[in-house]
Amino acid sequence: MRPRLNPTHMTYHHKILLETKASQACRQNEHKHLMEDDKYVKEFDVAVRAVHMACSLCQRVQVGLVTDCTDLVKSKDDDSPVTVADWSVQATISWILSEFFGVQNVSIVAEEDVQTLSKSESAGLLAAVVKTVNDCLAEAPKFGIPNPENDLGNSQILEAISRCNSKGGSSGRHWVLDPVDGTLGFVRGDQYAVALALIEDGKAVLGVLGCPNYPMKKEWLNYHHQCYQTLSKSSPSPLGIWKEGCVMYARKGSGKAWMQPLMHGNEKLEWPNSAQLIQVSSIDDPSLATFCEPVEKANTNHSFTTGVAHNMGLRKRPLRVYSMVKYAAIARGDAEIFMKFSTSGYKEKIWDHAAGVVIVEEAGGVVTDAGGRPLDFSRGVYLEGLDRGIIACSGATLHEKIIGAVYASWDSSNL
Ligand SMILES: Nc1ncnc2c1ncn2[C@@H]1O[C@H](COP(=O)(O)OS(=O)(=O)O)[C@@H](OP(=O)(O)O)[C@H]1O
Ligand SMILES: [Mg+2]
Ligand SMILES: [Mg+2]
Ligand SMILES: [Mg+2]
């Protein structure tokens, strides 16, 4: 029987659940990281569980998209795609955060809104979102999260999505959510991420990044791509094919970043037991370094970054990867540099960076704008004041060289 969830009972139930998990973690020396400082223990716990759930939701939807159902994808006004998974993850995480912390206490800054979904011609789309969210919540206990007594209805789900309309800012706590980052990669059966961060008084203090198609080990990527090709060419295939993804997370100031595998089949989430520490690469010789960047030329200036790469002595071909998996690659040492220079006029949004920045910095890396200044999460939805572009790097030596190369290349560029 599902646990009953009225507000009072649920808070108590959740508290017990979290405290039990927290005290288990406390007994385990290798996971002292959660208890070194009581701050954010509950937020961390809920955020990691919620992102695991969201990854599982996305995996199911992606298999469906790849094999069929292109009507689950819509185009936004800027021609970028949005899918059933984007809305469903936003609804699910919004619902979980509100249940745990109280609707009144939760401020969420997230990418999606309900405009398209609320139109009468979108009834089929909304029904798909409602089903996806309820299927996901029905599995919540596997992730250590109580599920609702009854399925959520249309209005509850629309309400959960639309409450994520906070503008953030420089005071108080704000969750920052990109339900599916790299939606283009997602619909193409490639890399994407679920990104959840917590901002307190304008600083990003927690980051959780779910990377459902990014295997725990870099070498497994080739295997994954072979599987994907088989999957996309043939008829329905087992969901387990995507099982090798991971979730990364870090708390600001802890000096540690962690990675754990996604769950498979009927496994229960053993968190934080299965986590391992991750660290940035120690390579500081540009000729040995790998740099990654967005896939789409609309999202960054490939010819400018080619010039920067040449100026600073990078020799390897760039690794073009969708989504915040680029931050994940830097954080665990699969690549050394991530550069993104959007066309002028495009303003970077905080949900595209906050979680990745915390994780890269705690794994030992450096993230700044092209002027060498930290990203400013305190000024609302956008990274206001960003100097030209974003540079995430495994260490200070490479970072200094890139900043120098950007200055050298800038005047001759058309940006
Ligand atoms: N014009 C333009 N310039 C720069 N950035 C833009 C632009 N348009 C969109 N976006 C944002 O980029 C996010 C995807 O970034 P990626 O690094 O994954 O790009 S790429 O898909 O690999 O090309 C993407 O995130 P998602 O919408 O969550 O996928 C957008 O927030
Ligand atoms: Mg995004
Ligand atoms: Mg997105
Ligand atoms: Mg988008």
Overview of the molecule:
The chain folds into two domains: 7-278, Fructose-1,6-Bisphosphatase, subunit A, domain 1 (Fructose-1,6-Bisphosphatase, Chain A, domain 1, 2-Layer Sandwich), CATH 3.30.540; 286-410, D-Maltodextrin-Binding Protein, domain 2. Helices cover 37% and strands 16% of the residues. The protein has twelve helices and 14 strands. It has helices at residues 7-27, 41-67, 84-101, 115-118, 123-138, 154-162, 183-187, 220-233, 302-311, 325-331, 354-362, 396-410; strands spanning 73-75, 81-83, 108-110, 173-181, 193-200, 203-211, 246-251, 257-261, 276-278, 291-293, 319-320, 337-340, 366-369, 390-393. Strands 3-4-5-6-7-8-9 form a seven-stranded mixed β-sheet, with helices on both faces. Strands 11-10-12-14-13 form a five-stranded mixed β-sheet, sandwiched between helices. β10 (291-293), α9 (302-311) and β11 form a beta-alpha-beta unit. The protein binds 3'-phosphate-adenosine-5'-phosphate sulfate and magnesium ion (3 copies). It comes from Cephalotus follicularis. Belongs to the inositol monophosphatase superfamily. InterPro entries: DPNP, Inositol_monoP_metal-BS, Inositol_monoP_superfamily, Inositol_monophosphatase-like, Inositol_monophosphatase_CS.
